[in-house]
Each structure stands twice: as structure tokens, then as C-alpha cells.
Design a protein that fits this description.
The structure is a homotetramer. Chain A is of the alpha/beta class. Helices cover 49% and strands 13% of the residues of chain A. Chain A has helices spanning 3-9, 15-38, 48-60, 82-87, 109-129, 144-158, 173-181, 202-211, 235-245, 260-272, 282-286, 300-309, 317-358, 382-394, 441-459, 461-477; strands spanning 70-71, 136-140, 164-168, 185-189, 192-194, 197-199, 217-223, 249-252, 277-281, 293-297, 372-376, 397-398, 401-403, 409-411, 414-416, 430-434. In chain A, the strands form 4 sheets. Chain A has a 7-stranded mixed sheet, with helices on both faces. In chain A, β7, α9 (235-245) and β8 (249-252) form a beta-alpha-beta unit. In chain A, α1 (3-9) packs antiparallel against α2 and α5 (109-129) packs parallel to α13 (317-358). The longest helix of chain A is centred in the last third of the chain and has 42 residues, at 317-358. The radius of gyration of chain A is 26 Å and the shape is globular. Chains C and D meet through α3, β1, α4, α6 and α7 of C and α3, β1, α4, α6 and α7 of D. β1 (70-71) of chain A pairs parallel with β12 (397-398) of chain B.
């Protein structure tokens, strides 16, 4: 209510109570004020009512919610279903304009404001996460792979002769497919095995750079966050090569914002070499539903060029999810999540170590991967390793990956040996698990317990059958520990 | 509740009441059964509670909502904010897999089911709208422009030599930009003026087809729905050329599903010639928020190829919006909307005719455009025409477009004269309005009233000032007529 | 957002768009302003977003939602469950104070404002419904029966000698039980049969008034809305007696606000005689969930005395339901509902007439009951009449009442013959149905169709069995026609 | 979805995924099963989705939500506003029937089930809280005061001659007013001062019992939870007198369920003497909005008699709030709250002690009050004591009570000296604060800090002005620490 309405409320209530109500409203508005002024993550997370108050204010600013509005165009933000109105807080116009996905829409001032505030808060979060010199970012309503495609297509407009993308192998399909979707040819760089760990073959990259005319190379396309035993790419060394050979450098930092290891690599590569853009998923780093990515970099005009390459408007849903989540986390909540994740990494390592050694296995030694942890599956036949993976899945362990040698896979024009292990000839079957943001101690404990049982079952399946059935029943009848 | 729980409820309630409750549940479930069996739009729209019941069931089927689940991967569908959980009904995994945006996700059986049901219902709606022989479609969480890019990139994989896209001019930026974003060069075909209407220069297209090696042409890229005075392209004639020259044919049917004129053209072109894919916006045809498009066609394997080109997963939000909306509309609701729109077209025409003739103007004669209607602005100076547009905007008329000659615009490598009018040399300034799905009589009346006032104000601005201010006040103090 | 925040938004958006957003906010606030100024039902109903905006504003004014508040009392409006927070828009303090249920609470200015605005709008609605000289009302979070008890207890404080309540018989249990609960003894006045209709025996009342010392009579307790064949009581004649004998007059107007017949009787009795309070249900007149009643009258100090008799605070939920509903209806919506109800009365009468005459029955002639309609069940055995009632119930017809003679019922100290028919010796078995607010044509048609089938089945049960089973299936598989 | 629908889902999804979805649904349903079987608080709290699933199931069981239902009665559970539908999960019929507020409604099997489950869970919670031999309870949608009235009126039906209620003084208005509202005369028993504490004058009660014919006494009406310096009444001694003199005993246990001290007194009095009913608020003990009370006792038939005295149906809103809250808490959550409260009592005591001694005051010695804590305000003039209270209020400290001698108050026919202090002649002015359920450390700290400042300001107001203004600003700009 505005000043006038508060004054009218005095006809119903003693003015001291009205005054307190006014102060209360003011203190909510003060949060909004600080956000608009500072353009940063709030220090402390907001409560639900303040977040929804802002969403409602924003909604009011879009033309489809003007009370006297008459829309006579072909897109007027009409929403047929009340369920849909509600879940989007009445926002209908999406984000962006035909010319630029980061542009302000005349019909949708509110949505545009939400987008700009979200981009500002995400940039702040990126810096807090460790990429301190990042200067610009945009949230796009596409997952990482398609965001890669857009980035490649943008670079293509600046390097029209480019045909090749140099790419150190990482066995994750979407990011590799992005190369073909965008119309390029990959030059795959096999990794080097150092003890258990797979590292970038920087020399091989350099060899290629020397052998191919630079204008034919679109970019070097590296990866930070990945499944063990692969380590993050040697960004700093590659960044230096990119600078030297004047080749763009694009980083797949899918879930790397949550790890100071990955963000440190990015920051270093940008400072000492060249790094044009790093792209990360919103769901994996900020715990929102799948559907968005953040394209960030150190040169505002390049990031702006990407946003201008996007043809037309796009869904505001991933932006709204991020907007709400960042406001509710605040700097404190975000930092706490990062710290908690680090702790969970150590805890997961410890528990896996215990289970592994109880069954004659061991942790993989991969010191550079700060998220994903592996244990060998070398004491059992290969087919058991695969079976172990699916047994975990049917026991409601999601996300564990059992990798056994022998899988050959073709993607586009390229054939990969031992697909899944990032390497043609990895010496062991193994199992990986990730200490990702949001992981809870309960998850780790449940995982460790079930993994232990699966190990036993694989060794003496018959004997344990009865016991396991009991276990399943007890699982389904126990209450969950988390709340609303 | 299942049978067992209903039995237990008899400890609290007389069994006849429990039985009635069971029957009630069964009748809700019966709706779901019919949907799963028929894979079509329900005949009548569903009530809110049944829709939400199904959303909740679907949610339960995704692994992040399994009560005993322990996720130890890098993406486990964790959602940090309860607001976000709620607005997505707990769905977090998006749609698609790395290999195919239309594929089933193991971690997200519920989301996958929702996607498949949505695709099935949309296909049904497309057929009801008039494209009876459409055989396949996918809903993608990108707006029309980016969906065009994806389609072009898919064709590129099959026609690696292709460089050009033949495109009859339509002055809408996003769809044109898509050509550049995908990395192609447009061959722009100027329109032909027939009375007031702009039509496709089919002969010029044929000339180009004869002059360029076919493998260098990616496709002909036509448009159905567009602002008057442009007519939909001559799809049938172009379709025959495409068939003859073996050139793919992609149609921008942005908001054409709502018009039987446009869907008829598509159906005819597909039957008698060649038409590979037609792409439409979900927001403009189904009244959902911006963010999705439907890529549809007549050859399942081609549509499937497009879905396989998409790298990685994507937001499920536009799919959910459509899912909810289609269920709540049903066949009856959807057909009613189409019929109502046709009626509103006639009504808008009538009211515009009245205002126009009162001020010495007239309707543009554009018999082939069944959505957009224009009136001349020839009795006033050009700058007044432009002013009229912005005066309408500040009076809360959104979507009206006042086009005055003289605007030159460069997009990518191409320069357009008189941008906005689809033609280098259109003889009049004019104003357009669209009878789009969801338009209400009140909107038309408000528009006509305000347009009339703006006309008067442009003629005698001073005199009317006082009256207008009063009007603005009365607008803001009147209640809206629509309800929740 | 306040002026300051809108100014800050100009750092993100062009100021013209911000200005439009500001205007939009202002037009929402203008609704609130008019409400606060006029203290009446808005002319047109509000849209959902404006209603929720006001609820959120109101919520902000309660101390449990002050951002910096520290509560250290024993009741601080803490809410444990987020579901509960949400469904009450954060309001926790209920309404009223220890001294007065209509008083302003210092900790809950927002809730208090909502209560006062609701009372004001309800008073307006009562006047619109026909009781033009009503001067005061309070919404209490108790259903009609308990509200009667409170009213009786209030009068008792002014008439400490009172023991008896004179009550013309109406066979509705709660309202009669209220007499005993409040600690009084009823003097039951049997009705008079005039043709089919049961009317008040005014002479008998007068006789009692002359025979008992007035200070021993608490009040005369009459009824307007009731099941046919009973007519509303003769309020005007009774009102005159009350005036003459100085006896309070309390009216059970349970669902009578929806009928101009009932409100006219109240208005007349108050003008020409005495009528202290009339009490009506909120659910039956305003289509909200059960739980509230409106106690209204013509003397502010008496109504205020009732509110002061209520000990302590009470639930705000029924007030909020009414607040939301009245805002969304507006004067127009409320009047439309009343008019529609009248039309449905005629339609129900017509359809019942058809079914009745097809089976040798006829409408009861009860010209003074404008809501409830009856048909005779005289052509079938008594036990069939009862069976017919339960057959309708199991066929999902709720609210029809089949009354067969012969039921004896004791309530408190009183024994009623032929309970249900308001009369010791009603000549027919009969069936009643009511044209209540919110009834739809579909309901009437479904009822008529099923009633017709039940009639047939009672005559030749075996033969029709197969057909009926089919019918049940078709019912459960049809979609509902109403929307969200 | 039922078995049939899961089978149909296999047309869209691999059957293993469908199977997992089915298991997930089953595990949700298993929670419901355990609830229906055990009729107790679940051990662990439920997650939001399971709670809402059950609410939706319950909703489906009410006739207004039957898909094919046609309602032709005068109350059919129609809800006009979608906002209202949603906030009540479609439930409209309230609880109870005309004969009994705890009876099952034929039209509302779902609502009835919810009510019965809630009563069962509350009884479990009462036992957990310490009243182990409680045998029966009902949740009524009225606050404590009105529930007292209902209880008194019920006893009146069994003791028709009763006129008096014996009541040890407690200065809380509603509970005292209940005596007059129900039509009785209070016999006020002044308390006895023992050190700082006020205790029951049991001898005076006995004296009255001996002097008045027992049939004229309705009951003894005692209090457990109250503001310090009053102690809970001596329930055990009074219970014995009640047993001896055959007088009913009703306990106002307003917020006493949260304190094992109060529940212990109730349990003991019931075991060794007589205690007919104890009544508590739902908001103060279970953190739901104001509006409900629990009437509990040790004799099922007496509690049942109370529920039968209630005339008609009533709001289900307070029941739903409690239902949701108890499910989300579970035994663990409820016990944790109780334990946490005890800890906060000690913490509040410690912090108050510090502030008090810093300003020459001290804690009141009231060893029997385990919730409310007081400090003297003896070093300042009386008017300052009062001012201190309002200064705290304007500084957003709610619930603190500053009591200064000298207030005379009349309620009904009784005049109280020094109202507020439960005693005609309490020696000090003092300030109370309560460690009630849900109190957080932050609240205590904020209170202690502001109290300290207010103390200082009262001593040297001028000097501190500037500092305080700064403080206010810092309060309003700080973010809240709690989350959604």
C-alpha cells in the first residue's frame, strides 16, 4: 500500500498500528532497494514473503498485467490456464528481444528487470566462487550443450574460415555433440595417464596448433569439472597457447563453479593467458531445475556478442528459478553450500575408502579432481562391475557410475575406445561418485551402506537374498528425514 | 490412496462413504487412463484438481522425489528453494538426454512421460487445427528463432555443402537472424504488390533455384503468419518447386496454428509438394508464456533427427505449461478458441473500418491475411503516423504497429529499405492490429475507442487535453472485468 | 515498490517503461484506495493478482511478519509449517481481543483491517440483498447454530430471568439444539397446514405471550429459509407482537440472504415491528467453506454487545475466505449470482414438474418458499420413498431429501412426530430439492435425468439393471464441464 | 496412478522405470497406511509432497469434488473463488453434523477422515507431552475462551441447578469472561504470596465448598499456564477436593502442553483426584494460526457429550492446520520442539538475569512457573515501568509485559485491584517474558539487547538518542536469518 492507503487505513485502525505496518512494509522494501542499488547477491538470504513480494511487483510491471491494457498484437502474454499464471507469477513475455536475448522488452519491463538483476547476482556469485576477474555473464535458458553451440556459432561469425575445434577428450556426450551440432569438426586430444589420473596432453595440442592454419581453428574447447579419473584440463598452459596462437578458448565448466579448484584454474588461465568464455549449468551449481546455463567471460563485448547472436526471445523460467534461489541463499547461504560441499567431499572419500578396503579395493589416486571420487573394481569379473552399477540403480542409488573396459562408441564421425573412461586403455574397472553441491551426510551413508551390501551380494548372492528383501521393506516404510 | 488404504479408512468411516470416495478417485484416474490409452487431447478439458493430481503422480516418478533415494552424482535434481520446488511440482531433471531431447531419462520417468504425452497432445491439436497429415512433432524449450537454427543445423548435417537459404522477405527480425546465427547466407526474395497486398514472387525463387547448384541451397524458408499487408507465402507453389528441385522446405508458422488459412496452406504444400518442417511458437498459439516452439513435420525420421541434434537436456518448463494448458482446454476448449478468434477477426475488422472511415482512412485490402488487419494512415504527415504508434503505446494499447515509410535497417549483411513494411516501396503509412487467439471483445472496444481519441488528438491536440486526462483517471479507477 | 525503488529501477530500464510499471502499480493500489474510502463491495470484482497483493500487504502489517520483530510472549503468531503459512498468507493472530471479537489487535493490525473491511463489505451485501435498513453486522468464525447460542447468551445477560424461547417448529436439528446448548427451554409452536404449505401459527404465539411473564421469555426465534413445504415464518406479524410485548426477536436466516423473499420479510419486520438480530451462514449465501456466520441487526449497540460477549480471539480463516470471495465477486458478481439463482429456481421447478407428472406425481403448492421445491411421492409405498432418497445419494445426487411419514425423534426434552416434515401429520411423502446460489443448469439436468431413472427402477427394478450399470460407467468416464 | 495406469505408462517408458515410479508411489502410500493403521503421530515428520498428496486424496473423497456429482441441496460445498478452493485443498463441508461436531458427515467423508486422524494424532501428542492417561480429545474450531463456554454449558446440562464457578484468580480476561458468557457467577479465590510467587489458596476453596450446596457449583476452574509471578494452580490438591465434594474440575491449560510441569500437574490431579477436562489452545502449543482449541479428558463419554452439545457444523480450517503441522513434525519434531523450549527457558533466564543485574534489578523467584520469567522494575518510578513496556513494543519487541501497580479493572460484576499482577497488592513493578514453543535464540538476544538499551534510555534519554537512531536503521537494513 502507498502512503495514501496507509493514511486511509487510519479510519479503521489506531494510527500507531498503521505506522508499524508502514515500517514493516518499508523494511521489506528496503531489501529491494539494497538489491537495486548494489546489484549484488544480498548478504543474507531473503525470506519467502519478501521474495514473493518482489515477484509480484515485477509481475505488475509487465504489460499483460496492466489493469487497463488492451493487447491487439499477435503476442500479448495471454495465459490460458490459471495454474500456469500462478507458477510464473503472471509473467508471460519471456526474456530478450529479437535483437538480443539480454535486451529490455518494452512490453515486459518487469521480466527485463528480473533478468538484469539475475545476471548481476550470478556475476557476483561467480566472483565469490573464485573467478574474481570475471566481468560479464548472461543466463541463457538452454542447458550447457546448446549454450556451447551458441557460443561456437558466435565465434564463427568472427572467424568465418574456422572448421576445427580442438578438444581434449572427456567422455560426456552432450558437450562433444555440440561440436557437430554447430557444424564443426573435432580434433580429439587423447589424455595422458599419470598414476591413476588422466591429464591433458598439452604438447599434442601445441603440435596441432603448429600444424593447422589458425584461421581454420574455431577454438580450443577445454573442460574443468569431469568424472574421475580424468583431471580438469591444464587451463593455464592451454590459455597461454591460445594467447600465443590467437585462438579463442572456451571452457566447459559444467559443474565447476562449486569447486574452488575449477574456478581457480579459470581465473589463472584468464589472467596469464587467454580464456574467452566459460560456460556452466545453472542446475548443477545452484540447485535449480535443469534448463539454464551461464555464459561468462572477461570481455563484455564478447559476451554481449553472444547474447546478440541468439535469435528472438526465450523462456524466463530458468531465470526466475535462479532469481528466487539466489535471493533466498544470499552470500551466506551460497558460501555455506560451497563449504559444506568441501566437507562432504572428504566425508565421501572416507566412507568410500572404508567400503573399498573391506572388499579388497582402493581409492583411485586423482589429486586434481576435487569433486568426483573413484574406487577400483578390480577384484571382480568385468561383467560384475557393470552389474554392480545397475544393482545400485535399482536400489535407489542414482548417479554412481560403474565403468568397465570394453565399450566402443561412435559419436558423429569419431569412434571412442573404452568410452566412459576418457581413455583408450584405462587399466581398471572402477566406480565413481561425486560430492556435488547439496549432497547430504545421509546420502553418503545410505550409499556406503548399500554399496557394501551390493559388494557382498555379488560375492555370495544366494545367501543374502532374504536379508536384502527385508532391507527393501524397511527402506520403504521409513520416513524421510528432510522436511518441506 | 490405494485399495489397502481405503480398506483401512473403514476403521474411521462407514464403508459406504469410503466406497464413494474410492469411486471418486477412480473417476479421476479414469481421465488419466483415457489419456494414456488414447494419446490425444481429452475431449473436454480437465478440472484443476485432476491436472494437479497427475502432475503430482508424475513428480513421484522422478528419482529426486523417491523417498529413499540417495543421489551421489553431479546432477541429482536437487532444488534449493521451496518456491522453485512448488512452481515445478517437484520436477527438476528437465527433458531429454545427451543423445536426444525426446529420449526418456532414466532418472526422470515422470518428466519423460509428461514430455511424451505433451508431444502426443500437441500433434493432435495440430491435426485439429488443420494439418491433418502431420505425423510427428516435438516441443522444444526454445522460441521459434532458435528452433529454426536447430532445424537448419540438422539439415546441414545432411547437406554439408549447403551455404544459402532462400527466403521471401518478411520484416520480422528473429526469424531472419536465425539464418546468420546458423551460419548461412540468405537469398532474399522481394515480395510482389497486388493491390494492397504483398505476395510471394514465386518466379524469382524458381529463377534462383535454376541458377544455384542445389547442394549449395540448404532450404527454402517460407512464412505463413505475418503482419499485413504481407500475405502468407505461396506454400503450395513453393512446395512443388522444392519437390522438383529436391530442396528442403522449412516453414515459419509462428502463430499460424490458430488460423485455418495457414494450416490449410501447410497441409496442401505437404500433400502436393514438399514440406519438411513447420515451426510454431507455443505462446502465440496456445496461450502459454514465451519459451517453447513446436517443430512438426510429415516424416518421423526427420523430426527425430532434429531432436537428436539437440545436445543435452533442456528445461521442462515450457513442456509443463503446454501440458497443463492442453489438459485444461481439451478438444472443446481448443476448438472454441479457434472459432472465437475467427469471430474476433470479423469484429476487429468492423470496428477498425468504423474508426478509419470516421477519419478519412480505409482498411487495407489484404484478403489472404486472416489474422492481421491494417488501415491506411494516409491523411496525416508521416511523422504523425509514427507518433500515433507511440501514443497508443502510452495509452496501454500494446501490439498495434504504425508503419511509416523511410526506415532503413541492416541485419547481418543485408540492408532493407522501408523496414517494417516487407517491401522496398509500400505506398502508404498504415497501422496494423491482429486478431490473435485469446483476443476479447473488450480489448477491441478499448482499442477502437482509444484509437479514435488519438486520431482526434493528432488533429486538434490542445483542445482535447483536458478530456484525455479525465479519461486516464477513469481507466485507472475502473475495475477489470476478467476474473481469476 | 515505492517511489525510491522505481527510481532505482531506472538504472536497469528506460524510464518510460519504469513509468508504465509505476502506473500499473498505481492502478492496483487505486482499487485498494477505493475500498478503504468507500468501505463497500467494489462495483466490479477484482482480479486474483490484486486480491493477493492486498492479502500480502495485510500480512506485512501483522507483527509476526515484521522483519526485525522479536516475540517473547506466549503467543507470537509463530507458524511451524510452510504449508500453513502459505494457505493463510502468513496471518496467524486470528481476529479479536479478549474483550471483543470485533476489536483491533495491537499485534495484528493487518488481520484487524481485513476483519473490518470484511464486515463492511458484508453489510453492503446484506443491503444489496434486500435488508436495506440493516445497520451493523459481524462475521463470526462459527456456524449458524453456535452463533445462535452466542446471541442467546448475550440476550441472557440483559434478561437474567429469561428461561424460555418461543420457536415455531422447523425440522432442522442444529438450530433447535442451540436452544438447549444455551441453557433454555423451547416452547415449540406447531405449524398450520394451508393447502400443501406449512405456515406460522401466529395466534398460538400470541397466546403464549399472554400466558407467560415477559421477563421469562428470552426471545422469539423464527426461521426464514427452510425446506418446503414449510414457508418462512410470518416475520412481520411476529415482529409486531415482539414490539408490543417487548420481547427480543432473533431470526434464523440461514440461507435466506440469497432470496429476496426472505430479506424482504426481515426488512418489513424490522420496519414495522421488532427484529433484534438475523443470523445467516457464510457458506450457504456466499459460497465459501463451512465455518462462518453473519450476525446482523438494526441496532449497532446490540450487535456490538454480542461481539463483546465472545470470550477471546478466534480463527480468521472464515473471514479471509469471505474477504477474498467478496472482492472477487464485486457488486456485479453478487447481483448476477442472485439473479441466476432466481432463474434456476424456475428451471428446477419446470424440470421437476416434468419428471413428476411423467410418474403420476405433482409439485407441492408452496408459494411462499422461494428456494426449496417439493414433489409428492404418493404413488409408491412409503418404504420406496425412503429408498428413493438413498438411491439418489448413491447415484451422486446430494442434497435431495425424501421425506416419508412415521419418523419420531427426540431432541433434548422434546419429541417430534413425523420429524423432517415440520408437522405432526403431513399428508404426503415427498421429495425436496433446493435452488440454492451457485446451482448450475447441468446440475438440474443431471438430477432430473437420474431422478427419472430412479423412479423407473423402483417400478421395474430388474429389467433396468443392465442399462444402469452402463450409465454409471459413462458417468465416470465423461469429463467435467467446469474449469479451474 | 493405479495399477492399470502404470501398466499403460509402459507404452511410453521402459517398464523398469515405470516400476521404480510405482515403488516410489507405494512408499508414499505406505506413510498413509501406517498413519491409518497406527492412528498416531508418525515417528518422523512427512515431507511436503506426501502431506499434500494425502490432502488431495482426502479432497477427492468429499462430494463437492466428485466429478459426476449434482448437488441440489441448500449446502453443497460450492466455493466461488479459486483462491479459496486452493487454500482449503477443495474442502468445503467443514466438520461435524448437527448432532455432533465429531460425527462423520455423509457428504464429506474426506473431511471427516481428516478430523478423526487429527484428533487421534493430537491425543498422541498430549500423551507424549506428559498427560499419559488422557483417553480422549476433540479439536474444536474455537479458541480457548469459547471452548470453556461450551464445556461449562455441557456440564450445565448435567447439573441444572448450578450457578457458581470457583476460580482462583488469574489476570487473563478471556478465560474469566467465559464464566459470564456461559451465564455463571464466579467465586474468585485470591492467590497467596510466597516469596515472589503467587500460589493457590486451597484452604479458601475448601471453605467455599463447605459453605455452598454442591449442586449449585458448576465446577472448579483452574489454570496451569500463566504469567509469572503466578504459579500454576495446585491441581493435585484441588483435584482431591473435587473428588471428595463431587464437583467437576475444568482446567485452563492454555499453553501448558508445551511444559512438562503443567502436564505433570494434570496427570497427577487426574490420577489422584478428579479432573474432568483440560483445554488448550492449538496456536500456542502447536504453532498454527489462532482459531482452535483441544478439549481433552480422561472419560470418553464426557468428552463425547461436549462434542454433542455443539450445535451444527464448524470450520475445518483449524483442524487442517493442525493436521498438516502434526504430520510435518512427527514425534521427533514435536519432542525436539519441547526440548528446545526448555533450553530456551534457561537461556532467557540467563540473559534476563544479566540485563537485570546491570541495571540494579533481579529475577523474580517463581520456581513453579516453567514458562514465564519476570524481573523487578523496582529501581525506577512506576510511570517509567509502564513507559518501558510501550518503548519495547515500538521497538518491535512483542509479548513483553510491564506490570506496574495501581490498575483497577472491572470485568462483568467483579472488580480487580492491581489488575495484571493476579494479586491485590503485589510488592513490585515487574516485566515478564515467556519462553514459549518456537522461541529462537535470536529472539532472546534481540530482546536482551533492546531491553538493555531501553533501560539506559529511561535513565539518560537525551544522550543516547543518536545511537538509537543508528540502531533502528541497522535493524531495518539487515536481512532476516530464517528462510522460507
Amino acid at each position: 500500500m502507498n502512503v495514501e492507503n496507509f493514511a486511509l487505513a487510519c479510519r479503521f485502525l489506531p494510527s500507531t498500528y498503521v505506522e508499524q505496518g508502514k515500517q514493516s512494509r518499508k523494511s521489506h522494501e528496503n531489501y529491494i532497494k539494497i538489491l537495486l542499488e548494489h546489484k549484488k547477491l544480498p548478504v543474507k538470504g531473503w525470506d519467502r514473503s519478501t521474495i514473493e513480494m518482489l515477484l509480484n511487483e515485477i509481475s505488475t510491471m509487465d504489460s499483460n498485467n496492466f489493469l487497463g491494457n488492451a493487447g491487439i498484437g499477435e503476442r500479448e502474454g495471454r495465459i490460458a490456464s490459471p495454474i500456469v499464471v500462478q507458477r510464473h507469477y503472471g509473467l508471460a513475455h519471456g526474456i530478450g528481444r529479437s535483437g538480443d536475448i539480454a535486451a529490455v522488452q518494452p512490453k515486459a519491463a518487469g521480466s527485463s528487470l528480473m533478468m538484469k538483476l539475475t545476471n548481476a547476482m550470478v556475476l557476483d556469485a561467480i566472483r565469490i566462487a573464485g573467478v574474481r576477474s570475471a566481468s560479464s555473464c548472461i543466463v541463457v535458458p538452454m542447458a550447457t550443450g546448446m549454450s556451447m553451440v551458441l557460443t561456437f556459432l558466435t565465434i564463427k561469425q568472427m572467424r568465418p574460415e574456422a572448421k576445427y575445434i580442438i578438444w581434449p577428450r572427456v567422455d560426456q556426450k552432450s558437450c562433444f555433440k555440440a561440436i557437430f551440432t554447430a557444424g564443426f569438426e573435432p580434433i580429439v586430444i587423447e589424455n595422458i595417464l599419470v598414476e591413476d589420473e588422466l591429464r591433458t596432453d598439452v604438447q599434442m595440442i601445441e603440435k596441432h596448433l603448429k600444424g593447422i592454419p589458425p584461421e581454420q581453428i574455431l577454438c580450443i574447447y577445454t573442460t574443468t569439472s569431469c568424472f574421475t579419473p580424468r583431471a580438469p584440463d591444464s587451463l593455464e598452459a592451454i590459455g597461454k597457447l591460445c594467447k600465443e596462437f590467437e585462438i579463442p578458448h572456451v571452457v566447459n565448466n559444467a559443474y565447476g563453479l562449486q569447486s574452488s579448484k575449477c574456478t581457480h584454474l579459470i581465473e589463472q588461465a584468464a589472467r596469464s593467458g587467454r580464456l574467452d568464455a566459460f560456460i556452466q549449468s545453472t542446475d548443477k551449481n545452484f540447485m535449480v531445475p535443469v534448463g539454464g546455463a551461464v555464459i561468462a567471460g572477461f570481455d563484455d563485448s564478447f559476451i554481449s556478442k553472444i547474447s546478440q547472436t541468439y535469435p528472438g526471445r526465450a523462456s524466463a523460467a530458468p531465470v526466475m528459478d535462479l532469481f528466487v534461489t539466489l535471493l533466498s541463499m544470499g552470500v551466506e547461504g551460497f558460501k555455506d553450500s560451497l563449504i559444506e560441499r568441501k566437507g562432504m567431499y572428504r566425508y565421501l572419500q572416507k566412507r568410500l575408502q572404508q567400503v573399498a578396503s573391506a572388499h579388497g579395493e582402493r581409492l583411485l589416486v586423482t589429486p586434481n579432481n576435487a569433486i568426483s571420487i573413484g574406487i577400483t573394481l578390480s577384484s571382480m569379473p568385468t561383467k560384475h562391475a557393470t552389474e554392480l552399477g545397475s544393482m545400485l540403480f535399482t536400489r535407489n542409488i542414482s548417479g554412481a557410475r560403474a565403468i568397465a573396459p570394453g565399450v566402443t562408441k561412435q559419436i558423429g564421425s569419431v569412434t571412442f575406445e573404452n568410452y566412459g573412461s576418457h581413455y583408450n586403455n584405462y587399466p581398471y574397472a572402477y566406480l565413481t561418485a561425486a560430492a556435488a553441491i547439496g549432497l547430504k551426510k545421509d546420502d553418503v551413508n545410505t550409499f556406503a551402506r548399500r554399496l557394501d551390501r551390493v559388494f557382498r551380494k555379488l560375492i555370495k548372492p544366494k545367501q543374502l537374498k532374504l536379508k536384502l528383501e527385508n532391507e527393501i521393506i524397511s527402506v520403504s516404510s521409513s520416513n524421510s528425514s528432510f522436511r518441506n
